[in-house]
Amino acid sequence: MEVSGKPTASRTSKSLSSSFRKGGILDSSLSNSFQNLNVSSQGSGNISLNLSSVKTPKQRSKTPNGKTQAKLIRSGSRQCKTPGGDRFIADRSNFEMSNYLLHQNPSGEISSNSSDNGNENTTTIEMKPRDASLYRRTLNEAVLGVSDLSSLRILSFTQKPQCAPEGYQNAHKVVYQGAVGNPTGTKYRVLPKSPERVLDAPDVVDDYYLNLLDWSNTNVVAIALRDQVYLWKAHTAEITHLPCDVQEGVSMVTTIGWVRDGSHILCATDLGTIQVWDVARVKLVRTLRTPDINSRIAGMGICAHQVVQGNRRGTLRQHDLRVAEHIVHTLEGAHSQEICGIKWSPDGRFYATGGNDNAVNIWDVMNMSDTAKPVCSFTQHLAAVKALCWSPTHSSVLASGGGTNDRTIKIWNVSSGSILKSTDAESQVSGLIWSESYREIISSHGYSRNHLAVWKYPEMSKVGLCFTSHDFFLLIIIVSVV
Q1: Do residues 397 and 414 touch, judged by C-beta distance below 8 A?
Q2: Which of 9, 39, 359, 471 is deepest in the core (most CB within 10 A)?
Q3: pLDDT digits (tens, 9 = 90+) for 211-251
Q4: Distance between CA 106 and CA 128 in Å, rounded?
């Protein structure tokens, strides 16, 4: 195939001759005929395309083994050898001249001439500027997908990488993910407005100070219904009944809590005792008794084998489940009124207690004794403090929520004893959970909103509301650990 052109009268013509070889044998599609294309620019400014077809007789030569071989075509001293036999590598050295000829915009008419001279047929086409521009647009659309190259950056990303979700701690996991869906559309975070599953809980005691719900590491939900405790296995929907009224005089289970491995559950009663149940055998294996008879236990915190409980008199006791003499320390007057919230820090060094005296006390486990004093005490709340939660990333940061007369969520720095943030929750705060995946806090509310709210930390701006369909007060909130 030969391509030649004359851009101007003063410029000399250039020619390019290229040949293709296929394993030493000429392709059968080219052995019968080849194309001759002449592109020239005439003196009048027209672009001329000359396409000719010349038939050549087949040349066959006998090889020593009797096979027919086509004549090899050489282009000067340059050869293109293709070891696979199915690849054709063109000589692209004259692309600049071809591009120059195709982008000329002379004025002229379209004419077609054909002649028959022996075996040669010649067709000449003269292009107008309008047709050359149409050709370029068609070529751009076919190759690049756009008709105008002025607004196209070839070596650039068409879409920016997707940003991490707002508040997500590790943004590196989604840096290299492309945008999903419409990249220009506004993205909203969808918070659930209805529960995934509803369980019937008749005779649940409507008391703000009690803690009647807990979720184990083995994915079992426990709920106290007056003097009975029911276990619901989430993976099998199996229900187990624990008859806590086997102890004489028990009329109400006031708080429950799982041990870490989920093999036993502790049930505190209105008699001031704590029952230890073996879940697999459905058997009461131990009862922890205290001197404060008939003083209900509303707050209880469990960390490994250590159990801290607080009763209506404001007395704080620490128990060790491994020994027969289970009472380790007794702090009389830890709070002036009933203790209704206890929460251990993630590292097990501190635990926080909240009471009906509107106070939050922080206790150091390593320095506990019968006469110990709290590390720091916060008294800025205006109502009872039941909702407590520690930051999963900062062991010295604590969040607390107040009752009906307070209706605030406060963030504390235990190390410095200072308040970091106070936010008006607009309703009674009955529970707090600090998210481990996002920098957010989830709060449950009783009077008067009866909903769950999501707060962005540390700004404490409200992300949104969920589960707004509750008809009565939300008494407690527990998160699944599975």
Answers
A1: yes
A2: 359
A3: 999 999 999 999 999 999 999 999 999 999 999 998 888 99
A4: 7
